[in-house]
Specification:
Number of strands: 18
Structural class: alpha/beta
Shape: globular
Distance between the termini: 68 Å
Number of helices: 11
CATH architecture: 3-Layer(aba) Sandwich
Number of domains: 1
CATH superfamily: Alkaline Phosphatase, subunit A
Radius of gyration: 25 Å
Largest sheet: 9 strands, mixed
CATH topology: Alkaline Phosphatase, subunit A
CATH class: Alpha Beta
Length: 482
Amino acid sequence: MPHSHHCGRYQPRALTRREMLRRSAGGFGAIALAALLGEETRAATGDANPAQAPFAPRPPHFEPRATSVIYLYMDGGPSQVDTFDPKPALEKYNGKPFPLKMEPTQFNNIGSTLASLWKFKQHGESGIPVSELFPHVAQHVDELAVIRSMTSAFPEHTNANYFLHTGTGIQGRPSMGAWFGYGLGSECQDLPAFMVLNGGLIPPGGLDNFNSGFLPATYQGSIFTADNPPVANVNRLEATDELQKNKLALLGRLDGGVLDRMGHVDALESAIANYELAYRMQSVVPELADLSNETAATHELYGTAAKTNGTATFARQCLLARRLVERGVRFIELTCPSVGHDRWDQHGNLKQGHEDNALCVDQPIAALLTDLKQRGLLEKTLVVWSGEFGRTPFAQGANGRDHNQFGFSLWMAGGGVKGGTIFGATDEFGYKAIENKLEIHDLHATMLHLLGLEHTKLTFRFGGRDMRLTDVHGHVVHEIIA
C-alpha cells in the first residue's frame, strides 16, 4: 500500500498518453485502449497541435476569403426600424394601438405604435436605404451586406450577449474570438490572436463574453483600451532587460518542473505561453499604440480629435483595429464608449440616446472601411456590425423601445461578402423575421466559412462529446458571399 505520510507538496505524476500506451502494449487490450485514447483534443485544421503551439498559424479547411475579423459590437441593441430596416407602415399607425399580436416584452410597459424618428434615404448604386443616423456609413452601402432577418433566442441582455458571443446563452462557453484563434492560430507571434478593444463599456455578462471556456486559456480575449499604453504593466518593472529575462527563465524552469511531474496541465501550459507572449508584447505594444506616426489626414478621417461624446475614443479604437489587422491579429472586437448615458438600450428617450450613440460610431466606422479599402485590406478583413438583439416597433412607455429578439438587422462588409446586398426581411412593421429567418448560429457559421473553416469540423473534445461554436446548428448564408 502507498504510504500516507507524503510531503504536502508531493503531487503524483500523471501518466502521459504515450507512457500508458507503452505500458499497455502487451495484449489485445492495447488496441482498444489506443482507440479510446485516440480521441484527443484537436482543431480539425491540419496537423499542427494547438496545445503545443497555441499561437502558430494553422491551415484552414479550404481557401479563405478573409484572414481577420473586426467585430463592431453595438452593446444594448440598436433599433432595426430606425437604422437599416425602414417600415412605412409604422408611420400609418403611429400613435395608434399596435395592430399585430404582441409577445411578452422585457418590461411590459407597452405603448402605441412608434414610427421611426429619422428619415431614410437610398444610397449608392445598390440603393440600399439607410437612416439619417448614419450619414457616413451610408456612403459605404455598396460594400455592405445588410441582414434584416436575424433573431436571438433571448430577450435579456446577459443571456443574449452570451448567445451572440459564444453560441450558447449560458456563462462559461468559449467566445467566438477564442474559436477563431483556436482554429486558425495567429499570423502575429507578438500579439494575442483575439483582442478586445474596450471603449469603456464591458457588456452585461462581463468578461465571460470574451472567455476561452473549455478551450485552452491561451485563446481568451486580451482586453486593450484606447489609451496609451492600452494595457497595464506593458512596461517592465525591472531595471534591465537582462534582469527580467533571468526572472522569466527561473519561472520557466519552475513551471517546467511541475509539468515534468504532472504531465499536461492546460492552466500551467497556457500561463507559460502567456508569460512568453507578454514579454514579446513589451517591445511591440508601445509602437502599436503610438498613433502619432499616422498622418494628419488619417486622424481627421477617423475623428480622433472629435469633441462629441465618445467619438474620439471609438475613432482611436477603429484606427487601432486597422493597425492590428496589418500585424496579423486574427479577431478584434470593439466595445462601445460611454456617451454620457446608457448604451443603445433606449427604453426611454429614444431620440437622444440613438442619436448620441450613432454620432459616436458613425464617422470612425466609415473611416475604418475607407482606410481598409485604400490599403487593400478590406478584401481580406471581415467587418461585422451588430447588437445582441433589436427593439420593438411599438413604444415602451411614451418615447422608448423595448428589447426585440424576433427580428433585427446587422451588416457585414469585406472579406468575401457580396456588397450592396439585402438579405431577409421582417414583417411590414419590422417586428418579426418572416423571410430567410436566421439565428446567431448561422452568423457564426458564415463568419467561420469566410475565414476558411467548416463550422461542423471545428471541434474540441469536452465532457465526452465534440463541442463546437455552432453546437448542432448553423447554416452558411451563401447568398451574401461574393
